[in-house]
């Protein structure tokens, strides 16, 4: 029987395995995951007797082409389409100068669609971006919209997705539609107008969704379609072996080998680079990661602003960078007598704020959220939880997409091998799922190409 091994049981790896099993039901698909459970950063825990997300809480409903996102398609394929629910219309805010302000309308990722200073948006002699070129988000926006726009709005929004900095993140990875438009336009205003105009999202359609009962249900439903997922397995080495591959598993003292006709590597950049070290022509993709901690508090029924939550710019000097009011944002999570909020701590380059005990992080969140809300103190919590994600969010520097293309070109010289996941194709649940599905199709095409 033809065997494909998927290394990594996060949502990208599970999506790859599901796609392989769907397109080739007779294929022997083996998923190996170093952790004690599949799902990676998708996990649902319990707080005060109700569900709470330990990691990512929602996904985009649509894809850039105007159809359903890869997350929606996967949920439907495993029978969870009817379980998709959407957030309430509650708006988000940003904490500035001691108060909460509405996020401005007429923006794209916090960038005003029109310049207030026309001189800052004078047409450049050439398009803003060379064909295939790349810059940081801050490098494009600061000179044309000002430091305050970047620091107060753009960076907090990017921080909520990447825990990264506008002056380091790749425009092509963070805002691909704007990057594409910048290749053809001479002002940021024109580039934004083209990027917004190119959107195929149906007006009024929900932007985000989640799974009723928690994102862990999606993980469980996908895993249930697979022959099996082996957890707690470390893959130490990968080598060409005959017409396929040999993987070395386990400890050095108790190693085993597993042969495969095809391989999907759905792990972060550093472990992928170690496994690819013996694969000729496979150039590693250098990539830094940001760490974050999520502090969830279940409070007795507490009067909070009618918001879904708020962002906190780094310029305000707080450890907390975002707060979500879960029972304001998600109607299906509301419970009588309980108010749930979750705060995020951790920005790239500022990991020192995470080097504290769980109790210290809880007290920091309590003090800072109370101050940001203008309250003397938060009431004593009914329950609390701290979820730490070390090295969770990739930090894409300009040129990242080209480096990934170079790696994949090198892998194309070998039989049925592909990489998938946030390290290569973007953060967010739909991006990871789409990456895993594409890797599965690459491996299947490779099996046909390399089969004698």
UniProtKB/TrEMBL annotation:
Pathway where this protein functions: Porphyrin-containing compound metabolism; protoheme biosynthesis
Cofactor: FAD
Domain Amine oxidase, chain residue ranges per copy: 11-444
Keyword Cytoplasm belongs to the record: yes
EC number: 1.3.3.15
InterPro entries: Amino_oxidase (IPR002937), FAD/NAD-bd_sf (IPR036188), Protoporphyrinogen_oxidase (IPR004572), Zeta_carotene_desat/Oxidored (IPR050464)
Keyword Flavoprotein among record annotations: yes
Subcellular compartments: Cytoplasm
Catalyzed reaction equations: coproporphyrinogen III + 3 O2 = coproporphyrin III + 3 H2O2
Keywords: Cytoplasm, FAD, Flavoprotein, Heme biosynthesis, Oxidoreductase
Physiological role: Involved in coproporphyrin-dependent heme b biosynthesis. Catalyzes the oxidation of coproporphyrinogen III to coproporphyrin III.
NCBIfam families registered for this protein in UniProt: proto_IX_ox
Family designation: Belongs to the protoporphyrinogen/coproporphyrinogen oxidase family. Coproporphyrinogen III oxidase subfamily.
Protein name: Coproporphyrinogen III oxidase
């Amino acid at each position: 029987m033809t065997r494909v091994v998927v290394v990594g049981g996060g949502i990208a790896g599970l999506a790859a395995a599901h796609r392989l099993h769907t397109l080739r039901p007779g294929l022997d698909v083996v998923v190996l995951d170093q952790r004690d459970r599949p799902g990676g950063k998708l996990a649902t825990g319990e707080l005060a007797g109700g569900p709470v997300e330990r990691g990512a809480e929602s996904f985009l409903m649509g894809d850039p082409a105007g159809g359903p996102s890869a997350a929606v398609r996967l949920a439907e394929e495993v029978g969870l389409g009817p379980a998709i629910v959407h957030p309430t219309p509650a708006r988000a805010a940003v904490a500035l100068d001691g108060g909460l302000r509405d996020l401005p309308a007429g923006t794209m990722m916090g960038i005003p669609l029109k310049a207030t200073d026309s001189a800052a948006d004078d047409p450049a002699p050439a398009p803003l971006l060379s064909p295939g070129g790349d810059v940081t988000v801050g490098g494009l926006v600061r000179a044309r919209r000002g430091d305050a726009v970047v620091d107060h709005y753009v960076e907090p929004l990017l921080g909520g997705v990447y825990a990264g900095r506008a002056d380091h993140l790749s425009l092509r990875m963070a805002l691909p539609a704007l990057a594409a438009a910048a290749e053809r336009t001479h002002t940021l205003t024109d580039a934004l107008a083209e990027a917004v105009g190119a959107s195929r999202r149906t007006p009024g359609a929900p932007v985000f969704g989640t799974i009723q009962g928690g994102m862990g249900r999606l993980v469980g439903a996908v895993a249930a379609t697979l022959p099996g997922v082996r957890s707690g397995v470390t893959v130490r080495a990968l080598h060409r072996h005959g017409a396929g591959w040999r993987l070395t598993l386990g400890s050095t003292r108790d190693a085993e080998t597993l042969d495969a006709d095809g391989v999907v590597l759905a792990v972060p950049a550093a472990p992928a680079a170690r496994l690819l070290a013996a694969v000729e022509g496979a150039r590693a993709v250098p990539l830094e990661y940001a760490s974050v901690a999520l502090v969830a508090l279940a409070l007795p029924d507490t009067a909070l602003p009618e918001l879904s939550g708020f962002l906190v710019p780094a310029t305000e000097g707080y450890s907390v960078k975002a707060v979500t009011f879960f029972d304001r944002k998600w109607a299906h999570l509301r419970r009588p007598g309980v108010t749930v909020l979750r705060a995020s701590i951790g920005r790239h380059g500022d990991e020192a704020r995470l080097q504290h005990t769980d109790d210290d992080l809880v007290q920091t969140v309590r003090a800072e959220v109370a101050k940001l809300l203008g309250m003397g103190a938060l009431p004593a919590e009914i329950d609390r939880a701290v979820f730490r994600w070390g090295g969770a969010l990739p930090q894409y520097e300009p040129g990242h997409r080209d480096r990934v293309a170079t790696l994949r070109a090198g892998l194309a010289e070998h039989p049925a091998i592909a990489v998938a996941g946030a390290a290569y194709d973007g953060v967010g649940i739909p991006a990871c799922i789409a990456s895993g599905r594409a890797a599965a199709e690459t491996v299947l095409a490779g099996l046909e190409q390399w089969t004698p």
